[in-house]
Design brief:
single chain, alpha+beta, Heat Shock Protein 90, 2 domains, five-stranded mixed β-sheet, 11 helices
Length: 421
């Protein structure tokens, strides 16, 4: 199996450093044998070996931990070898070149520039003033060390920049992964809020109507049994519809491997007639009026409009003690305005013609006052804002309560649709 050299070097740093020091020591000794034609080779074998051991030993010991000190030691070793009369070659400067490379990769460009200039300030004057071999040409004493020592500085900068780029790419990838996890968590939270809102709408609406129908049937059971029988039939339809919608909402929590249930169109304004008939079973008369030219709505706006009307009528049936409620749909060129009003008060009787208090399952129960602080109004407002609309609710000066929602016909961000079996 072939192992890349870089991975091998990272996993066996001590072995690589030892082999490098041995090779540089051999190159240092071999470079000391070079000379220019006509010049005598200096007889300084012992001193050359000592300088090579000093330079390569410092590399082996401190090149990864104290590169600045290694540059100083190898600079002194190279200058001493030049003072002995050795020709300046890349082989002789090898330990210093490796030390400069390590320093550049570890410490950066500014520190490498200072050490590079300091090394030249030691080597070039030594070559010009102390070199006992006068036959060495001046370019070999000045330009040659400047060029050869510049090479490891440039290479080290390139390697350092490449590593910084790889680290930046890795950091961006980790940040993107973290962002994806946070986005997934945010979507889970939003989905839970949406499911909770759907559960509130379904349970609150149908149970409120069922409660009102049961109370009305109980009130009429002795005096008008025929009317009570019809209300009980409506009660069965209300609970059946509640079960269907509750099942559809709970099915949103099913795991993907359990399969998806059959789907039907989401509730919309096209089902207002059925909604008003359901409310009529509680004694609440609902009148629907449309102004302007009706336009097709996006699924999100259609569902939002239906749920707002449904929740508003549920509040009327539970809290207002109203006999009638009015729903007005006003279509403009780019906006749908929904207004739901009632004529009830907190102290009025329950559903029309029954005398039973609204919002209770038996005669004589308390009548809650609708103050706009419940979760119903909060849910309606959140639904309107989810499609870029707005909602206002409050008491009317002439009595009763008004809910007004303004929804864009074509929102930029459509609201999520719901599933219905």
């Amino acid at each position: 199996m072939c192992i890349p050299w870089q991975r091998f070097a990272d996993d066996h740093t001590r072995t690589v450093d030892t082999m490098t020091a041995v090779l540089l020591f051999a190159a240092f000794l071999f470079g000391g044998e070079f000379t220019v034609p006509g010049a005598d080779r200096p007889d300084t074998v012992g001193a050359t070996i000592a300088l090579g051991l000093l330079s390569c030993g410092s590399l082996l010991r401190w090149q990864r931990t104290r590169p600045g000190a290694v540059v100083a030691v190898t600079t002194g070793g190279a200058a001493a070898a030049i003072a002995l009369g050795h020709l300046i070659t890349p082989l002789l400067l090898g330990p210093l070149m490796l030390a400069l490379y390590r320093l550049t990769v570890r410490a950066g460009r500014r520190s490498a520039r200072r050490h590079y200039c300091a090394a030249l300030a030691v080597i070039v004057p030594t070559a010009l003033l102390v070199d006992p071999v006068a036959h060495h040409p001046w370019p070999m004493r000045t330009l040659s060390p400047a060029v050869w020592l510049l090479f490891p500085v440039i290479t080290g900068n390139l390697v350092r920049l490449q590593r910084a780029y790889v680290d930046a790419v890795q950091a961006r990838a980790e940040y993107a992964e973290q962002g994806r996890e946070e986005e997934a968590h945010r979507r889970v939270v939003e989905e839970r809020v949406r499911i909770a809102r759907e559960l509130h709408d379904v349970v609150a609406h149908h149970l409120a109507l069922a409660n009102a129908q049961a109370g009305t049937a109980a009130h009429l059971a002795r005096t008008h049994p025929d009317r009570a029988h019809g209300i009980l039939d409506d009660l069965a339809g209300t609970t059946s519809s509640a079960l269907r919608e509750l099942k559809a909402t709970v099915n949103l929590l099913r795991r993907a491997d359990e399969g998806d249930p059959p789907l039907a169109p989401s509730p919309g304004l096209g089902q207002l007639a059925e909604l008003t008939r359901t409310c009529a079973g509680t004694g609440l008369e609902v009148r629907v009026a449309t102004e302007g030219t009706a336009r097709p709505l996006t699924p999100g706006v259609d569902l939002t409009a239906y749920r707002i009307v449904q929740e508003a009528l549920t509040n009327v049936a539970r809290h207002a003690g109203a006999r009638t409620a009015r729903v007005r749909l006003c279509f403009d060129h780019d906006r749908l305005t929904i207004t739901v009003t009632d004529d009830g008060t907190a102290d009025s009787a329950g559903p029309a013609g029954t005398g039973a208090p609204a919002g209770t399952g038996a005669p004589g129960g308390p009548v809650p006052v609708k103050d706009g602080r419940g979760f119903g109004l909060i849910g309606m407002r959140e639904r309107a804002e989810s499609v870029g609309g707005a909602l206002r609710a409050g008491h009317r000066p002439e009595g009763g309560f008004r809910v007004t929602a303004r929804l864009p016909l074509y929102p930029d961000t459509p609201a999520p649709t719901e599933r219905t079996p």
